[in-house]
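Worked Example 4.2. Read the sequence first, then its structure tokens.
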Amino acid sequence: MRVRKRLVDRLLGPAAYEGSPPLWLVTEGLVVAGVGAGLIVSAGVLSVLAGMSPSKTAGAVAVATAAVALYLLITRAGHVFVAGVAVLGALLASGVSGVVAEAVLTGAGRTQDVVVTTVAHEPAGNPAYYCSVRRQDGSPVEARLWRGCGPSVNPGDLIGMVYDPAGRVAPRGVDGPGSLVRGLAMTAVLLLAFTVLCLLAVVRSYRVPSTRSGQPSG
């Protein structure tokens, strides 16, 4: 039983207090969740607005996520919660980056028709058709487009592309309305899940003798 208890404490946190967690502990959890979410969101936003490369973006997100996870480990949070926070942090940063990029293209993007050079169907993972394209003056476009691409599109066809004149984000195909709203909704769900998980990790990480005690005992 003792070995099992230690394993549960390590995975989920001890949460050794009677009744509800004390107010100071809940407050600390809210602060950690708020600061952690701020770090992750800032990394996602700055990576787009600063025009960072994918490798630098991944590095910034990793640093922000690792900072939150390290703090939780120091407070003896359960390893399951720490792992969940790390995964959700990476997903949240990616979602924020996608929303910011979509907002940039929606607000400052320009639309032009481009020529399809090849069409590839990639069924693995997220099945989709991808179009390699070039501008009508012959200059190539590095990014492949999946929006507006499909089985009915053939090489030589024209499809719409939205691009950022400042070059901060990759171009995308022209899509119907609602992409930004869908991205915001998904990011909001990830943000809520990340915040709740951080709060639970902190609240369960301390051994408090009773709800009347204001300080942890170990």
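Now turn to a second chain, presented in exactly the same format:
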Amino acid sequence: MKLWIGSQVAVSAVFVMFGAACADDGLLPNDDGGADGGDEVGTEEESEEEESTGSEEAGTSTEEESSTETSEGEEESEEESSSDDTSTEDEGESTSEEEGEEESTTGEPLPEGFCEDACTMFAQGGCLTEEACADHCAAESPGWSEALGEAFVTCVETNPLCFMTIDDCMLEELHPPGSAFDLALTGAGFGDYEGRTILAWHDSGPLDPFEGEAQIEAGAFALEWSEDFNGFGVMGPLVLYYVDVDDDGGCDPEVDLTGSQQLEWDGDFVTPRFALEVTPATNPAPFVCSFLP
């Protein structure tokens, strides 16, 4: 009996020691029913890995979204920029076309072959040669309107052109005698005659006289007219003038400054203007005092 009890005690002691050893090695559950320290470490590592994986996925998603937004923004910006550029080009083309229309005042261009056709028939006994006609037409006709082309053809076919140029004839065709012309006589360098009066006039007959006077200020003067008078082709009217140096109201070639100048055509067939700027004459024209208006 004592032997059996001793054996039971020994067995119990072995189990107690084995349990203690297992508890020390972390192989038995803890009092809370969960894993002891070893299991807690494993769980924390798994949690960190999950969090890390989640962060990486979130970062990747954010980067993809950001990249998508940036790409979309760049595409929109490029579209807007392209639209703006197109709009600017369209506006530039429209402005250029409008300016071209405003600057084009000569009408439709002449038909191709105009010069060849115009220079085939000449006035009988005329002095214009076919070569001179073709050269002049080729150089001058670009930009001519139909009206200017008709004047050219009329001059070539009907005018001998022995005592006037083609331009003379065309001006007379486009602006017959009695047409209005803009005229101007201006002066500079008259400082020695400051405050004095200058009188200018044109006297080629009873049909087209004009005259005017002005005071010299800062060494300059300006006289302008818009008159109906008999044209002279490209050669403008002769203007006579004198500066009343002694301020006595009369023209004295021994005292007063006299001059005689031809106004010059500006080259415009449509709205021709004849003008000239003069300076104190180095060659006096005393005869003007004999032809006062």
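Notes for the reader: Strands lie at 180-187, 197-202, 210-215, 221-228, 235-243, 257-265, 273-278. The radius of gyration is 54 Å.
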